[in-house]
């Protein structure tokens, strides 16, 4: 007996690029103190008021099967949120509640791709994107963005790759780069999608973490509502990563089919989790700002620290909880730099190569430890980079 090609080729073969992260975790398990600036996990926990709402719902009996499309009140709350953001009329019938953003990404591609279809995604990319596409039997095709453009996608590059493709996956604010796509960028993407008849899957899980510019959902652009599926989540906006509650917003006909998919796969999200999410979203912007505040603060700390050195290049840190740093002046790849930094200073960062070819020679720094420890780790990282660059210059 054999396993399916679909399941055995999810990662495309070879390393998944996360060796540094796994090594750092092993070091920590062995008692080595490691400053972990790797994954996008808040250093604060879910707000006590959200947990209280969750507890009250569970104790009140909402522990059985919940409606597969989602609890009506949460679907309505998400619909109002997306309508306010986009200006596009949106109802609960446009919303499916999912077990987190990752399940929403999978479902969106299941809805838009047949087996053997080509699905586009932008490089650098969040680590699960190509595997998610392969998981629905589609062919994952990367479209590279460029460091010299601050990783803003070029419409011409997408158009050149779009022959025969059926969908495009984008992410703004972006993980791993921290870039927020400009209106000009999104309008170019929209024109390609309309010209090439592509579905656009827009991962907007960092929409509450915008430090510069504005978050624009492509659903708001002319002619895009009928071809855009928005992926959202409670994980980043409300520090509810473990609660696994997200959504897809799209045309009603798509949502109806996705409800059938959910019936045969996830069978919904626990009701008490959904009630807590509904409470959290209705708590308003103040709570979201409180969750985002540590990253806004640390971004400013990072900009001040990086202004005092000339080795590392900072990709415009406009949103999300990450910094993307160009380490090429050290003469090292991102992977070499990250491994050496971990070995010499016990600071763990993600190599840019973990997120695709376009970020080679970069590292991603997650701003996810306390301010003082973060500042100290970043200062050490800068000193390490300068020492390596000086060694290269002396050779």
Automatic annotation (TrEMBL):
A GO biological process held by the record: amino acid metabolic process
Domain (Aminotransferase class I/classII large) ranges: 45-380
InterPro entries the UniProt entry points to: Aminotransferase_I/II_large, AspAT/PAT-like, PyrdxlP-dep_Trfase, PyrdxlP-dep_Trfase_major
EC number(s) recorded for this UniProt protein: 2.6.1.1
Catalytic activity: L-aspartate + 2-oxoglutarate = oxaloacetate + L-glutamate
Cofactors named for this entry: pyridoxal 5'-phosphate
Annotated GO MF terms: L-aspartate:2-oxoglutarate aminotransferase activity; pyridoxal phosphate binding
Keyword presence, Secreted: no
Pfam families for the chain: Aminotran_1_2
Signal peptide segment: none
Kinase as UniProt keyword: no
CDD domains reported for this sequence: AAT_like
Family assignment from sequence similarity: Belongs to the class-I pyridoxal-phosphate-dependent aminotransferase family.
Name of protein: aspartate transaminase
Native organism: Falsiruegeria litorea R37
């Amino acid at each position: 007996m054999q396993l399916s090609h679909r399941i055995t080729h999810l990662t495309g073969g070879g390393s998944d690029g996360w060796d540094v992260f796994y090594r750092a975790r092993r070091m920590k398990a062995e008692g080595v103190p490691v400053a972990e600036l790797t994954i996008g996990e808040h250093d604060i926990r879910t707000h006590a008021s959200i947990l209280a709402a969750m507890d009250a719902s569970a104790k009140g009996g909402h522990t059985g099967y919940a409606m597969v499309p989602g609890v009506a009140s949460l679907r309505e709350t998400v619909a109002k949120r997306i309508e306010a953001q986009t200006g596009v009329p949106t109802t609960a019938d446009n919303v499916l509640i999912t077990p987190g953003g990752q399940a929403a990404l999978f479902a969106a591609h299941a809805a838009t791709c047949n087996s053997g279809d080509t699905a586009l995604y932008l490089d650098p990319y969040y680590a699960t994107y190509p595997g998610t596409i392969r998981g629905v039997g589609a062919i994952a095709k990367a479209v590279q963005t460029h460091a010299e453009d601050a990783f803003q996608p070029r419409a011409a590059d997408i158009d050149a790759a779009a022959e025969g493709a059926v969908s495009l996956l984008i992410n703004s604010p972006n993980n791993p780069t921290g870039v927020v796509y400009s209106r000009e960028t999104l309008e170019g993407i929209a024109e390609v999608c309309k010209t090439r008849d592509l579905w656009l899957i827009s991962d907007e899980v960092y929409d509450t973490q915008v430090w510069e510019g504005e978050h624009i959902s492509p659903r708001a652009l002319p002619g895009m509502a009928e071809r855009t599926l928005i992926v959202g989540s409670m994980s980043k906006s409300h520090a509810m990563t473990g609660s696994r509650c997200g959504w897809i917003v799209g045309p009603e006909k798509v949502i109806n089919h996705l409800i059938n998919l959910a019936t045969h796969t996830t069978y919904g999200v626990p009701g008490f989790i959904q009630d807590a999410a509904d409470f959290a979203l209705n708590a308003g912007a103040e709570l979201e700002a409180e969750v985002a505040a540590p990253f806004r603060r640390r971004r400013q700390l990072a900009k001040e620290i990086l202004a005092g050195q000339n080795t590392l290049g900072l990709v415009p840190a406009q949103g999300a909880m990450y910094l993307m740093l160009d380490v090429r002046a050290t003469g090292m790849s991102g992977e070499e730099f990250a491994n050496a930094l971990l070995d010499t200073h016990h600071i763990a960062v993600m190599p840019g190569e973990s997120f695709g070819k376009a970020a080679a020679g970069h590292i991603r720094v997650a701003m996810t430890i306390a301010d003082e420890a973060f500042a100290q780790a970043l200062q050490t990282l800068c000193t390490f980079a300068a020492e390596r660059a000086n060694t290269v210059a002396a050779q």
